[in-house]
Amino acid sequence: MSRRSAPEVLSLVGDREDVLRHVGLTGRRKRDLAEAMALSRSTLDRAIRELADAGLVERGEEGYARTLCGQLALEEYDRAVRRVEGIVSGSAVVGSLDAETAFDAAVLAGADVVEAKRPSPQEPLRRLGNILERADHADAFSPAIFPTQVDTYHRRVVHDGLTANVLVTGAVTSRLVSSYSDETKEALQTGRLEVRWTTDLPPYSLLVAETPSGPELGILTYDDTGILGFVGNDTSDAVAWGRREHARRWDDAEPLPDIAAD
């Protein structure tokens, strides 16, 4: 067995993925593999030799099977493929964000991606609102505000018992105080809503919601022209990232000006 670099192993798994997957964990003989995969014996021999030389398969009593390293390498390859597929499918929604924007490929892996385009340019906003409608608790931040969001938070907090920790920018704070003072005041007075403001927000809105069916992450991205799209994901990796992004900003944020008092 020869020692290979990580890029070399990843390249080998990509080139020989079909063989590595077909050998399985219990062992298969070359003859059976060749028939199942419709490969020539010479092609299969070369693939098995390369995989064995890298320590990804080994020969046993039942034939060739994946080693533990082969199994782990295949799992990491599959994970990488899912994430890159997510990046490709989500490029129209996140592609214009600055390269240094806080983001994680896990958010896009297997995600529900919706672009803001005709004939339903408001569909991304509606998708984010749908998550909030199902939530029992919400941790969120947003550099922008829309009337429908204010209405939904107000109704869900005041009438449905939703609890929420919401981070906004200074500009959004000013709008809440000046344009939505009554709604904000009533929601704050329930004790179920806490709003803080910060200058440290990326160019997207984030919502981590606890719902009866489990936690969900929703993101709404923007550019100078308005909403770009929506990304929704309920995988543990995506949700965990969203929670970290909210938590690391929450403790350093400033409280909303006191408009809740009578």
Automatic annotation (TrEMBL):
<feature type="domain" description="HVO-A0261-like N-terminal">
    <location>
        <begin position="8"/>
        <end position="85"/>
    </location>
</feature>
<dbReference type="Pfam" id="PF25213">
    <property type="entry name" value="HVO_A0261_N"/>
</dbReference>
<dbReference type="Pfam" id="PF08350">
    <property type="entry name" value="FilR1_middle"/>
</dbReference>
<dbReference type="InterPro" id="IPR036390">
    <property type="entry name" value="WH_DNA-bd_sf"/>
</dbReference>
<feature type="domain" description="Methanogenesis regulatory protein FilR1 middle">
    <location>
        <begin position="121"/>
        <end position="251"/>
    </location>
</feature>
<protein>
    <submittedName>
        <fullName>Predicted transcriptional regulator, contains HTH domain</fullName>
    </submittedName>
</protein>
<dbReference type="InterPro" id="IPR013561">
    <property type="entry name" value="FilR1_middle_dom"/>
</dbReference>
<dbReference type="InterPro" id="IPR057527">
    <property type="entry name" value="HVO_A0261-like_N"/>
</dbReference>
<dbReference type="InterPro" id="IPR036388">
    <property type="entry name" value="WH-like_DNA-bd_sf"/>
</dbReference>
